[in-house]
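task queued by scheduler; priority normal; single chain, no ligands, no partner chains; default sampling; output format set to structure tokens
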Amino acid sequence: MSLERALERLYLFTQDAVVLCETDPADCEDPRIVFANHAFVRMTGYTLDELIGNSPRLLQGPDTDRSVTAEIKEALANWSYARAELLNYRKDRTPYWVDLSIFPVPDETGAYRYWVSIQRDVTELKDIQSSLTASNAWLDTVMNAVPQAIITVDEQGTIQSANRSSQSVFGYAPHELTGKPLECLVPSLHRERHARLFSAFLSAGEIEDRRMAGGRDVEGLRKDGTTVPVEVSIDHLALSDGSRRALASITDVTERKRHEGDLMIKQHLLELAETMASLGNWKLDLRTGKLHWSKETFAIHGRAIELGEPDPEDVFVYYRAEDRENIGAQLRHAIVHREPFKITSTLIREDGEERIVETQGQPELDGNGRVVAVLGAVQDVSERVLNEQELANHRDHLQQLVEEQTHDLLLAKEDAERANRMKSEFLANMSHELRTPMHAIVSFSRLGQERFDRWDRDRHLANFTRISDSGRRLSGLLNDLLDLSKLEAGKTDFEIRDTDLLSIIGQVAAEMESLIQEKKLSLVIPDRSNGPVRAELDRSKIHQVLVNLLSNAVKFTPEGKELTVSCEDQEADGRVLISIADKGIGIPEQELEAIFDKFIQSNRTKTGAGGTGLGLSICREIVGAHGGRIWAEGNLDDGATFHVELPKHFVNGSGHA
């Protein structure tokens, strides 16, 4: 059998394009195409007659990377293995990308005259590579990360040739392996068994050990004496002189052994073993009506090999009802119009599991141009489709995360700007509050010094009174700052006792009586005759809270209005509720929460009664330290109501009694 015929037989059913070039061994400048399979003809757009005798450079064009072609040329000049991605041009000059592997094959005499190039159109993969990196990672691993050695051996078991990848697998340079016995790559423990299988394999007309031909895991022996796990696939070639050669494809599967659960090894690119593309081959012979399936096709369908291939008409039961008519129509169209076809459909395996598959077919013509068979391949692409769906989901989720984070950043920016405004307002406010009493103290002190001899006793007494009032105001402000600081730091001591809240309300009302009468206000407080309302609390701290709230109510309520203080024992919830309602200027709804922040005042109180904005913050800290809560509400008519809710049994701010 000629080398060209052997390669035609070897690559006839593969999806990949295969081309065989011949050249003068002394001059690699002008290789000539002597064989190309159907896939190569389809991919290039040239007819077989147009390709035969021409140079592969026919496919190059203006944008073909010359550095890549130079590397390939250098590899060819060295008669060594080459692999590259290259931009080629079809007959109609449309560009396409190919992933090509080139390796030398000796002729019948053992001399190098031929190059076998296995090519795959990767244009679509190149176009979508950026968006499908995750979904194609497994394919990249199989195609690019797994080193593969190709070795030819004669009938005596002597190595005739080895490609460059052999060195990465076994540590030998290709020229070091040539002429050595094959057993130099096999550990001594396995040599007898290996030699027997190899001898039987070469001498038989048919494959005696299918596991060896289809890919078998064995231990290999490296040059340095260490072993390496390899997968070996072997097929034999019958040369024209009657001798035989074994073509061994050897893959280092160290990484697969280490990560066997994660990696998928596809069928080898050669038909001598299932290609690493995980494709199943099939052939429908129109002359006999018989269907041929490869081993992988059986596996994809979940059908046991022992059952044999189904009848052609029974194949349709593996597909969904809605897909069957389309598959039949595509097959008939391919036969009638002599055109290839490609279908994606849902396959139902023997075990009932549904898988997504891509099926391709190509009519085969005899010498008279008649369609005598349909050759094809079927590939399980469920994982790829799933990865594409997951990638789309991840992309959508990522966009959502970006939008959420952008929103969070905008909120954070607004909070930072608000905090900055608060700081500026606080500094301005505190500067005013501190400077006013301090200015009074300094001014009246200076006046007293300057007019000590001229003023009578009453004038001096009035002056000292003003100094004293300013000092008390300044002291109160500093005390508020210190109280808030200690409360926030958790360094305030609480004296918790069982206390009647109505007594505290009555005490606060008495203290505020003169101020209330001065503004001609009326105050309504709970009737103590109904009995006490008791809770565990720090009397002085809660007293401070109620004084602050009632003072604000008096301060911001116009003359002649009414103030109401209520106290409710919510026994069912184990809490008490104190409410102070006024008929004052009210609080804008958007500020009901912000007024409890430090140094914040309502826009309606920044001018008028004034204040530092610390009182409500201190109230919130005290109430929070008791395990309670404080909030404000706007009244329906006018004014505002402040609520203080406290547990009947003391619970500190961390939630513990």
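post-processing summary
- The CA atoms of residues 423 and 451 lie 41 Å apart.
- Confidence is low (pLDDT under 50) at residues 135-146, 205-213, 261-273, 606-610.
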